[in-house]
Amino acid sequence: MTSVSIVEQVVSGPGAGPYAITTGPDGALWFTLIHSGQIGRLVPGGEPTSHRLDPECRPTIIAAGPDGALWFSEYQAHRIGRITTDGTIAEFPLPSPDRGPFGIAAGPDGALWFTETTADRIGRITTDGQVTEFPLPTGALPSMITVGADGGMWFTLNQANAIGRIGMDGETAVHPLPTEGAAPVGIATGADGALWFVEMDAGQIGRIDTDGVITEFPLPDRSARPHAITPGDDGRQWFTEWGRNRVGSITPDGTIQVHALPTRNSEPHGIALGPDGSLWTALEIGALARVTVGAESVRTGL
Fold first, then answer.
1. CATH number of this structure's domain 1-16+219-302
2. Residues classed as catalytic
3. Is residue 284 part of an annotated ligand binding site?
4. Per-residue pLDDT for 300 more than 80?
5. Average pLDDT, the chain
6. What pTM did the predictor assign?
7. Lowest mean pLDDT segment, chosen from 3-7, 165-169, 227-231, 243-247
8. String of DSSP letters for the chain
9. Annotation-wise, does 78 bind a ligand?
10. Was 259 annotated as part of a binding site?
């Protein structure tokens, strides 16, 4: 079994809620503080800084854009936000105040694509703020989104129990999951060219190739409630187990390992490969956890 070292760094108060995380073009980690309405930044080995938004906007997912800025969804404010690496913020309202934007990712067309959870739509926003929307089946609750190796955008349909794809022409396809009530959330493209996703309610990791063929891998603990997933630099996919306070990995052939986080009930959510080659996960208790090959797990403060 691969051993890992997990070091937690406190980056906010316990009520701020680090939620999603990504690596920016400036070699820093950028993360959302969902409860306090802030965007955080941390250079590995340094001290965290933060940029304030509307405290009630609930920033959720954050992703690097094609323009050298970071883009994020404001779930409660129904806006898409943009922050430059020097901290300049712009916000773009969606066509109506009922969209619930959540997942966001850069597309191959130079735009950002995002999910509208409460409106059952996929949105597209250009870097100058022009929004286009594409309808999905009613009640689908689209969640996370990522770009696929085939040039399409792939997304999870949490309540429709399916994986969807939208092409640059707006054409959509839906692939039902074999397991009922799986509630997929996180999704990412793996080194094998397939899409890997987590099934939160089924306690499984799923894989779908670009032809729509689905394979599911049960976790050792089916009640783990996996939440987010990201590719590592070792060919494995790394994921968070929100319900069991762990991070885990899965190889292309389905071999799974899980690792406990040092602090109990830390609520791991987003996970991303950091600029230092380690995996970093956002812990809602107010910390980021750095996961590397090693032997000891500790917690550090500010």
1. 2.40.10
2. 269
3. yes
4. no
5. 95
6. 0.95
7. 3-7
8. ----EEEEEE-S-TTT-EEEEEE-TTS-EEEEETTTTEEEEE-TTS--EEEE--TTS-EEEEEE-TTSSEEEEETTTTEEEEE-TT--EEEEE-SSTT--EEEEEE-TTSSEEEEETTTTEEEEE-TT--EEEEE--TT--EEEEEE-TTSSEEEEETTTTEEEEE-TTS-EEEEE-SSTT--EEEEEE-TTSSEEEEETTTTEEEEE-TT--EEEEE-SSTTS-EEEEEE-SSS-EEEEETTTTEEEEE-TT--EEEEE-SSTT--EEEEEE-TTSSEEEEETTTEEEEEESSS--EEE--
9. no
10. no
